[in-house]
C-alpha cells in the first residue's frame, strides 16, 4: 500500500479505510492557502495586530523543518558516524527552531483567537483548512501540527460563542484524525513487534517508507546539512591522496559516553525538561519499573537570575525539586539550550553557571553533571565545566524521540540500538507525549532481556576525544630555478593585413605569466607592434635569453601572436615563418623568421624546458620529427624539453574573434592556464595537458586545427606550469565573465574529458596524447583545487557546479575558511540569504580576522532582514578595514538599516 499526497478530505477516508477506524477531516477540498480568507466570505478587515499571512508562513516553515528532520534521519543508522552526528545535530537544531516557532505561534494564536478580534473565525478557518486539506500535504505531514491544534483547541475553549463552539468541535475532530494517522503508522510497527525475536531482520514500513520517499524528492540530506552550515568531511581521504598525520588525542578532555559501562547496563537520560506535564508522567513510569534515570534540565524552564545573579525560581523548579526528592539525578542542560560550541566567554559561562545556580537553589543535591545541548561543545566549554566541577555526559544511544513522530518507531529504534551496543547511555527527552508512550515498551523489553539500569553514583568511564588539526603538507614543486618568457604581439603590420587581437593576446599572456605563475616581470620580454621587428625578436632570443643569464634549471615560455606564412621549398616541403612587424610580403623568405630558425634557437637555449606557443597560421612548419612522448614526473626534471603548440589553420589570416578582444586560440589557452588545462587535477599543467585541452577545444569552435609536439633536440621533457592556489574570497567585487565569454567557454567545455585525445603533430600527422596520471596529493591540496574549480565555475555563473566544488573542498578540509566564504557567496548570489549567512558565520569562526567575510555576512543578514546582525557584521568589517575602498558604502548601508 502506498500513500499519496492527500488532496481532498474524501481521499483521506479512502486512504485510511483499510485501517481500523474511519476518520475524516471536517472540511471539503479546497486549494487552501493558510490564512487566506475563505472563498465567498467578505474580506472583513481584521482588528487584530496579528499578521495572519505571517502566521501562515510560520505554519509552512514548521512543516518544512518537520520534513527536513525526517529526511535527515531517514536510514540514519546506515550513515557513517560523522555524517550521522551532523545529521542529528542539525536535526535537533531544526527541532528546537520549531519548538521556538511553536511557542511564538502559541502566543500569536492566543491573540488571534481573542474574542475582541472579529476576524478570528475567518483567520482560524484559513489555518485549519491548510492543515486539513492543503493539496501539498501528506497525511504524516499533519502530525507536525498536533501541538498547534492542541493550543488552538485550548484557545477557542475560552470563547463561548456559537461559532467558537463549532470551531472547537472541528479542531477536536482534526486531533482525532491525527490520532488515526499516528495509529496507522503504529500498526506497521506493531507488526514488527510481533516478530521481536527476529529483530535483526530488516522490516518494511511501507506507508512510512513511502512518505519518506516522497519527502526525499523534495529535500536531500546533504542539501539540508549544507544549508545549515554543515558539510560532512570525508571519513577516509579519497583514493590517491596522501594520508594526513593522525591527530594527537587530548588526554585531559574526559567525558562519559556510556561505552565503558559494564555489559548489559543502561543509563536512561531525559533532556530539555522539566515539562509541566510529561516530566511527571515519565517519572511515574520509571517509578513503576523501579528504574533510575538522569534528567538534564534547561535553566530557563526553572526560572531566571536577577541582576545580582540570584535565582528566581518558577513552577518548573517545583517539578525538578520533586524529581530530586524521588532520587533521580538532575543535571544541567544549559540555560537557553544554545549551541554552546558556538559560544565563548561570559555568554558561554553564563549558560553553564546560570543553570547551576538555579539547580543549587532548588537543592544542593543537584547532580554535578552537564549535558551540552545537541552534544555540541568546544574546548572552552569543557574548560568551563572543569572550573565549575561539572562532568560532561554524552550518550551512545539516541532515541531520536524529538525527530520521530511515531512512538512505536521510537521504541523499536532504542531496542535495536541497545541490542547493537550492548550497553550505554540512552538519550530521551521528557517534553514529548510520544516519549511517554514509547517508554513502557522499552522498559518491558529491556528488563525481559536482563538489562540493568544504572543511576548516577559518581562512577564514569573516560573517553579520549581528539581534534588536533593535521599539519600542512609540503607542496609539490616543479623544480625550476627561474622562469623566462618572450611575448610578442603584432596588430599594426605596415605591409601585411592588420590584425585585431594579437597585442591584446600578448598582453593577456604576459599578465597571466606574471600574476598567476609568478614570472618576474623583468624576465618577461614583451614586444608589441612596432617593437616586434625581425632584429628585436632575434635579439630577444639571442641576447636577452641565451646571453642574459638563462640557466640549465630554468624554463622559457615563448608566445607569438601575429601573422604566420608558409612557403613551399624546392624540396616540396612546406616551411613556416613567423612574420615580424617590418616584413614585406613580397620578400618574406628573407625578412620573416623561418620556423627552422626558431628550432635552432630552441636547441641553443640552455634552459631545461622551453615551450613555444604560436598563435599564427601555417600549413606546415618544415620541422624534423622530434623525440618521442613524455613520461612523468620524476624523470621530467632531468629531461630537456622543447615543445611547440601552434594555432594551425594554414589558410586563414584571421581566426574568429574570442571574448575580451582575444583570438579564440589565445582565449582558450588562457582558460587552460586559468586551471582548465589541469586535466588530471594534480595542480600542474604540463604543455602536453595544455595541448590536450586547447587543441580539441579550439577545433570544435573554429576552423583551426592546432598542432602540438616536441621540437627536434627534445628529450621528451614536458614544460610545467604549477597552478597556484586561488586566494580570492568571493564578494560583490568579484568580477564574473561576460555573457560572450561564458557562452564560448560552455562550447569549449562541451566535450567530456577523455583519458586520451587525438591532436595534430608538428609534422602534419596525427598523434594520440595520453594525459599523465595524478601524482599523490594531500587532502589540503585537493581541497584547494576544488575551491579553485569552484571559483572558475562561479565566474562562469555555473552556481550549482560551483556549490558542489566548494562543498567538496570543505569535505576535504572542514576548516577551509576560503571555501566556506565562497560557498556562502554562491548561496548569496542565489538569494539564499539565511544559508549564506550561516556559511559566512562559519567563515569568520574559522578565520575571525577576515574582513571581507564580515562584509559578506552583513550583506547576507541585511538581505535576510536581520538588521541588528547586519549592523554588527558591518561594524566588525569597518573595524577591520576602516580605510577599505568599500568602507564609505558600508557606512551608508548601515545608516539605511
Ligand atoms: Zn537538549
How would you sum up this structure in a few lines?
With 897 residues, the chain is an alpha/beta fold.
What's the topology here?
Elements: H1 9-16, H2 52-73, H3 81-112, H4 120-133, H5 146-157, H6 162-194, H7 206-218, H8 221-227, E1 241-242, E2 250-255, E3 265-273, H9 278-289, E4 294-297, E5 303-305, E6 311-313, H10 315-325, E7 329-332, H11 345-362, E8 369-370, H12 379-387, E9 391-392, E10 397-398, H13 407-421, E11 424-429, H14 433-448, E12 452-453, E13 463-465, E14 483-489, H15 502-516, E15 524-528, H16 534-546, E16 555-561, E17 564-568, E18 574-578, H17 588-591, E19 593-594, H18 595-604, E20 609-615, E21 641-646, H19 664-676, E22 684-686, H20 687-701, E23 707-710, E24 720-722, H21 739-748, E25 756-760, E26 766-770, E27 777-778, H22 779-795, H23 799-812, H24 817-829, H25 833-846, H26 851-864, H27 867-880, H28 887-896
Parallel strand pairs: 1-27, 3-4, 3-11, 3-12, 4-7, 8-9, 10-11, 14-15, 14-16, 16-20, 20-21
Antiparallel strand pairs: 2-13, 5-6, 17-18, 18-19, 21-23, 22-24, 25-26
Helix pairs in contact: 2-3, 2-8, 3-5, 4-6, 5-6, 6-13, 9-14, 11-12, 13-14, 15-19, 19-20, 22-23, 22-24, 23-24, 24-25, 25-26, 26-27, 27-28
Bound molecules: zinc ion.
Amino acid at each position: 500500500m502506498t500513500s499519496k499526497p492527500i488532496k481532498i478530505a474524501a481521499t483521506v477516508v479512502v486512504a485510511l479505510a483499510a485501517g481500523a477506524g474511519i476518520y475524516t477531516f471536517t472540511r471539503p477540498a479546497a486549494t487552501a492557502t493558510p490564512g487566506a480568507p475563505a472563498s465567498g466570505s467578505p474580506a472583513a478587515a481584521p482588528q487584530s495586530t496579528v499578521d495572519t499571512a505571517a502566521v501562515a508562513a510560520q505554519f509552512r516553515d514548521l512543516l518544512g523543518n518537520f520534513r527536513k528532520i525526517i529526511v535527515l534521519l531517514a536510514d540514519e543508522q546506515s550513515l557513517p558516524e560523522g555524517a550521522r552526528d551532523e545529521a542529528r545535530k542539525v536535526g535537533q537544531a531544526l527541532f528546537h527552531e520549531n519548538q521556538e516557532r511553536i511557542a511564538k505561534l502559541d502566543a500569536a494564536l492566543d491573540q488571534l483567537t481573542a474574542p475582541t478580534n472579529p476576524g478570528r473565525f475567518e483567520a482560524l478557518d484559513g489555518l485549519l483548512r491548510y492543515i486539513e486539506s492543503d493539496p501539498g500535504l501528506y497525511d504524516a505531514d499533519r502530525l507536525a501540527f498536533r501541538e498547534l491544534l492542541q493550543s488552538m483547541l485550548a484557545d477557542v475553549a475560552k470563547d463561548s460563542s456559537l461559532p467558537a463552539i463549532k470551531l472547537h468541535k472541528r479542531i477536536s475532530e482534526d486531533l482525532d484524525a491525527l490520532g488515526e494517522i499516528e495509529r496507522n503508522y503504529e500498526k506497521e510497527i506493531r507488526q514488527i513487534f510481533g516478530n521481536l525475536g527476529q529483530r535483526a531482520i530488516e522490516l518494511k514500513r511501507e506507508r512510512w517508507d513511502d512518505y519518506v520517499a516522497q519527502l526525499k524528492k523534495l529535500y536531500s540530506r546533504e542539501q539540508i546539512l549544507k544549508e545549515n552550515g554543515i558539510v560532512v568531511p570525508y571519513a577516509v581521504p579519497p583514493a590517491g591522496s596522501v594520508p594526513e598525520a593522525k591527530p594527537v588525542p587530548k588526554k585531559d578532555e574526559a567525558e562519559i559516553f556510556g561505552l565503558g559501562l559494564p555489559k548489559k547496563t543502561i543509563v536512561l537520560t531525559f533532556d530539555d525538561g522539566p515539562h509541566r506535564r510529561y516530566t511527571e508522567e515519565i517519572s511515574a513510569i520509571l517509578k513503576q519499573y523501579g528504574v533510575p534515570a538522569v534528567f538534564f534540565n534547561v535553566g530557563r524552564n526553572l526560572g531566571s537570575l536577577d541582576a545580582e545573579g540570584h535565582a528566581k525560581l518558577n513552577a518548573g523548579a517545583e517539578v525538578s525539586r520533586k524529581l530530586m526528592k524521588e532520587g533521580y539525578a538532575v543535571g544541567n542542560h544549559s540555560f537557553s539550550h544554545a549551541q554552546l560550541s558556538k559560544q565563548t566567554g561570559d555568554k558561554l559561562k553564563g549558560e553553564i553557571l546560570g543553570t547551576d545556580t538555579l539547580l543549587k537553589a532548588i537543592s544542593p543535591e543537584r547532580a554535578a553533571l552537564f549535558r551540552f545541548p545537541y552534544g555540541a561543545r568546544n574546548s572552552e566549554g569543557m574548560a568551563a565545566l572543569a572550573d565549575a566541577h561539572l562532568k560532561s555526559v554524552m550518550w551512545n544511544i539516541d532515541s531520536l524521540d524529538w525527530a520521530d513522530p511515531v512512538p512505536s518507531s521510537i521504541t523499536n529504534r532504542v531496542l535495536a540500538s541497545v541490542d547493537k551496543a550492548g550497553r550505554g547511555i540512552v538519550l530521551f527527552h521528557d517534553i514529548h507525549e510520544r516519549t511517554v508512550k514509547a517508554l513502557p515498551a522499552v522498559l518491558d523489553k529491556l528488563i525481559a532481556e536482563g538489562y540493568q539500569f544504572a543511576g548516577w553514583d559518581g562512577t564514569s568511564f573516560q573517553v579520549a576525544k581528539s581534534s588536533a588539526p593535521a599539519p600542512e603538507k609540503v607542496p609539490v614543486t616543479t623544480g625550476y630555478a627561474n622562469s623566462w618568457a618572450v611575448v610578442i604581439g603584432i596588430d599594426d603590420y605596415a605591409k601585411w593585413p592588420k590584425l585585431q587581437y594579437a597585442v591584446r593576446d600578448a598582453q593577456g599572456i604576459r599578465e597571466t605569466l606574471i600574476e598567476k605563475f609568478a614570472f618576474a616581470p623583468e624576465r618577461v620580454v614583451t614586444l608589441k607592434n612596432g617593437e616586434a621587428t625581425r632584429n628585436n625578436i632575434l635579439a630577444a632570443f639571442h641576447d636577452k635569453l641565451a646571453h642574459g643569464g638563462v640557466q640549465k634549471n630554468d624554463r622559457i615560455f615563448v608566445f607569438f601572436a601575429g601573422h604566420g606564412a608558409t612557403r613551399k621549398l624546392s624540396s616540396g616541403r612546406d616551411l613556416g615563418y613567423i612574420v615580424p612587424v617590418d616584413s614585406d610580403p613580397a620578400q618574406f623568405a628573407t625578412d620573416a623568421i623561418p620556423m627552422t630558425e626558431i628550432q635552432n634557437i630552441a636547441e641553443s637555449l640552455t634552459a631545461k624546458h622551453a615551450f613555444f606557443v604560436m598563435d599564427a597560421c601555417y600549413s606546415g612548419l618544415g620541422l624534423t620529427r622530434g623525440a618521442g612522448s613524455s613520461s612523468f614526473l620524476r624523470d621530467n626534471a632531468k629531461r630537456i624539453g622543447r615543445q611547440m603548440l601552434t594555432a594551425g589553420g594554414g589558410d586563414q589570416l584571421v581566426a574568429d574573434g574570442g571574448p575580451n578582444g582575444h583570438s579564440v586560440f589565445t582565449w582558450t589557452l588562457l582558460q587552460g592556464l586559468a586551471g582548465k588545462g589541469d586535466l588530471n587535477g594534480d595542480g600542474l599543467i604540463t604543455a602536453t595537458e595544455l595541448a590536450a585541452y586547447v587543441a580539441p577545444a579550439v577545433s570544435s569552435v573554429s576552423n583551426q586545427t592546432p598542432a602540438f609536439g616536441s621540437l627536434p633536440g627534445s628529450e621528451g621533457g614536458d614544460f610545467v606550469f604549477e597552478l597556484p592556489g586561488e586566494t580570492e574570497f568571493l564578494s560583490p567585487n568579484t568580477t564574473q565573465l561576460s555573457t560572450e565569454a561564458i557562452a564560448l567557454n560552455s562550447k569549449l567545455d562541451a566535450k567530456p574529458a577523455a583519458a586520451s585525445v587525438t591532436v595534430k603533430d608538428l609534422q602534419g600527422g596525427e598523434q594520440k596524447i595520453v594525459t599523465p596520471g595524478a601524482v599523490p596529493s594531500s587532502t589540503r591540496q585537493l581541497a584547494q583545487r576544488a575551491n579553485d574549480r569552484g571559483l572558475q565555475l562561479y565566474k562562469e555563473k555555473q552556481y550549482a557546479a560551483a556549490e558542489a566544488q566548494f562543498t567538496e573542498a570543505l569535505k576535504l578540509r572542514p576548516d577551509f575558511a576560503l571555501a566556506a566564504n565562497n560557498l556562502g557567496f554562491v548561496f548569496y548570489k542565489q538569494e539564499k540569504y539565511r544559508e549564506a549567512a550561516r556559511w559566512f558565520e562559519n567563515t569568520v569562526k574559522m578565520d575571525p580576522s577576515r574582513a571581507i567575510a564580515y562584509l559578506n555576512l552583513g550583506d547576507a543578514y541585511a538581505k535576510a532582514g536581520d538588521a541588528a546582525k547586519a549592523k554588527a557584521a558591518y561594524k566588525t568589517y569597518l573595524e577591520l578595514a576602516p580605510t577599505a575602498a568599500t568602507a564609505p558604502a558600508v557606512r551608508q548601508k548601515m545608516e539605511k538599516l
